[in-house]
Amino acid sequence: MENILNFIDGKWIEALNGEFFDVYNPADGKVIAKAAKGNRDDAKLAIKAAKREFYENKNGWRRFSAVKRSEILLSIANELEKQKEDFAKAETIDNGKPYREAIGDVEDAVSYIKYYAGAVRMPSGVTYEVSDGFGQMHSYTIKEPVGVCALITPWNYPLLMGVQKIAPALAAGNTVVFKPSSETPLSTAKFFKLLDRDDIPKGTVNLVMGSGSTVGNEFSENTDVDMVSFTGSTSVGQTIYRKSAENIKKIGLELGGKSPNIIFADADIDGAVEWAMMGVFFNQGEVCSAGSRIIIEESIKDEFVKRLAERADKMTLGNGLNNPDMGPLISEGHMNKVLGYIEKAKEEGGKIVCGGYRYTEGECANGYFVRPTIIDNVKKDNTAVLNEIFGPVVTIQTFKTEEEAVEMANDTEFGLAGAVFTKDGARALRVVKEIRAGIMWINCYNPAFVEAPWGGYKKSGTGRELSKEGLDEYTETKQITINLNPGELGWYEKR
């Protein structure tokens, strides 16, 4: 059985306390590896190494040219691409997702690295025409790295979320301390082996595994950390936000969602059904942007729900390596949480149209599987409508007017994503403009691109990832002004 170690200051080491934690395959509940159980002391050691590399090494990573950093990142991307199948297998075993989805994640990760390797070579400064009140001046800006960046990622996209943060952080010239989810460290540790190379100075990248209450809190509270970027639940994000605010760190938060999927009567119903499936059953519904609230025009509700249920009932569940439609949920605890939400929704009047139970047939006997679930007849204050369930569960609500649809869509504390299905282009544009969310789709659900920014409004977070905006998150803007006519200003009278 593999022992996964921390990577600190260029060395693979056990946790300072010598402890390990078990890593499970959610498809069968078996232990597949043991990982170093770091704590605050390990986090401090990693932060110290990253700080030394950033601030003290005169030939360090941030002093490399953008071209050199770009070339190194491209080399890493090529290595990842060569090992695509091995990474996808590790991701599937660790997370449970279907292998075909894991392959897609690895391919996206390669694309992300290549994108930021290219983006960092692009001009980023701006020149300004300024007033001549102080004489003739030339004013311009440059982008500089933030410093020591602490990156914390969730378990639903272990490799992809890691690369989504690490690639722009390194491209910009920062040093990194990284904490993956304790549920899914396999692919992350495998990726750090690609970062363990002679042309990346020691201390530039550091991996510390352990709990959020120890490693994560140290990242947030330590004054030597210049930035925290976190993807995960809103409740944990709020804690990180408060702790980081005490020492005024730069912070990026990509948090939860309860996203609306609005379907009008004129929509292509079969297309809307399949995109709705993509919106809430992809990755077992363990997606922050999941379209978990279907808000549908009353006149087509019955037909739509019938077709959606027929498709959902036919979905296959099983070990991700066998490429089913859906794999297991991440853990027994999370599975029970999802099932608890379903039972609560039933108690509050919701009608289970399909699914709603743990699936234990065949190879799924010992895994954490939940059948795709549709809950109809829910009111706006139903538990399943209000809370992020983070599983293959969708609620059905109806509307009669466009205004009512918008009001229902915005009736949430979250604002990550949403979608509108209609053949009326003008209506689609009107509605997406009114929805308070950072990402909106028209006649589709869930496509994401490294070229386009990702992030939300309200309790769904702050800042943006992906695109050029994602690179800018890991930089500071410095204004520089040059006096083109050096000499006395003449402001003060000579005496």
Structural class call reads alpha/beta
Shape: globular
* Name of the CATH superfamily of the largest domain: Aldehyde Dehydrogenase, Chain A, domain 1
- Average pLDDT for all residues: 97
The end-to-end distance, rounded to whole angstroms, is 83 Å
Rg (CA only): 25 Å
Low-confidence stretches: none
Strand order of the largest sheet: 15-18-19-14-13-21-22
**Roughly what fraction of the amino acids lie in strands?**
15-25%
Helix content: 25-40%
Figure out the total of helices. Answer: 15
Describe it.
The chain has 495 residues and is of the alpha/beta class. It has 2 domains: 2-255 and 460-480, Aldehyde Dehydrogenase, Chain A, domain 1, CATH 3.40.605.10; 260-442, Aldehyde Dehydrogenase, Chain A, domain 2 (3-Layer(aba) Sandwich), CATH 3.40.309. The protein contains 15 helices and 25 strands. The protein has helices spanning 40-55, 66-82, 84-95, 99-119, 158-171, 186-195, 212-221, 234-245, 269-281, 301-313, 332-347, 383-386, 402-409, 425-434, 467-472; strands at 2-4, 6-8, 11-13, 20-25, 30-36, 127-128, 137-145, 148-152, 175-179, 205-207, 227-231, 250-254, 260-263, 293-297, 351-354, 358-359, 369-370, 373-376, 393-399, 414-415, 417-421, 439-442, 457-458, 461-462, 475-483. A hairpin with a 2-residue loop joins strand 2 and strand 3.
Please outline what is shown here:
The chain has about 500 residues and is of the alpha/beta class. The chain has helices at about 40-55, 65-80, 85-95, 100-120, 160-170, 185-195, 210-220, 235-245, 270-280, 300-315, 330-345, 385, 400-410, 425-435, 465-470, and strands at about 1-5, 5-10, 10-15, 20-25, 30-35, 125-130, 135-145, 150, 175-180, 205, 225-230, 250-255, 260-265, 295, 350-355, 360, 370, 375, 395-400, 415, 415-420, 440, 455-460, 460, 475-485. The strands form seven sheets. A seven-stranded mixed β-sheet has the order 15-18-19-14-13-21-22, sandwiched between helices. Strands 10-9-8-11-12-24 form a six-stranded mixed β-sheet, sandwiched between helices. Strands 1-5-4 form a three-stranded mixed β-sheet, with helices on one face.
